[in-house]
Amino acid sequence: MGRKILVVDDTRNVQLMLQEYLENQEFEVALAYDGVEAFRVFHEGGIDLILLDIMMPNMDGYQFISKLRAESSVPVIMITAKQQEADIVRGFELGADDYITKPFHLRELLMRIRAVMRRTNVSEELTAALKVQNLTLDSARHEVRKDGVLIDLTPLEFTLLTLLLENAGKVVRRQDVSLRLMDNGFAGSEATIKIHIRNLRQKLGDDLAEPTYIETVFGVGYRFIEGAD
After folding, report:
1. Which of 3, 55, 79, 229 has a Cα-to-Cα distance from 103 of 20 to 30 A?
2. Count of beta carbons in the 10 Å neighbourhood of residue 106
3. Tens digits of per-residue pLDDT, 70-103?
4. Residue 166: in which H helix or E strand, if any?
């Protein structure tokens, strides 16, 4: 396992969803129902980052982070349904490192976790690895595996897949694909992009009629299907 994240939320389904996803991303996960329980778990040690809901019984997120900051600078990302600017400002004033509102994509949350860890100088294991569905892309080894089986990609295909996985669940515009390819020394014309996307789909074993990995957003670009949240 990698770094340890404490998930503080009074909704059991949310706890389990985040636990399953983060453990699949090689994090260790601890759970707490409210701020009181969260302090007990935190004091057991080893917590590298806290995902903190605001609206909870006994001790809410604001009360928790106020008390936490009196003794620790561990990174905190506040997760809440609140979207008022005043709530966001209050969270930052109390010492939150980032803030994300429900509903959110799990990949977006993962990127925020990694960004906060980098900013706070918390070393994270396996930061080079991207995992979406049953695919793992390891930039350090320049490897892509599907269900653990190595897939042989060309450097251009690897660059394309990296861009799509980094933005899983979001549309990547054709212009952005072209720019990424040109930045890496490849031709970025739309005609060649279509060919390389087709080849990448074939190597992933994707169904062109009903894709489970890469779908075309007509007139815009491509989206890597994130899978069930």
Report:
1. 3
2. 21
3. 888 888 999 887 667 777 778 888 888 888 888 8
4. helix 155-166
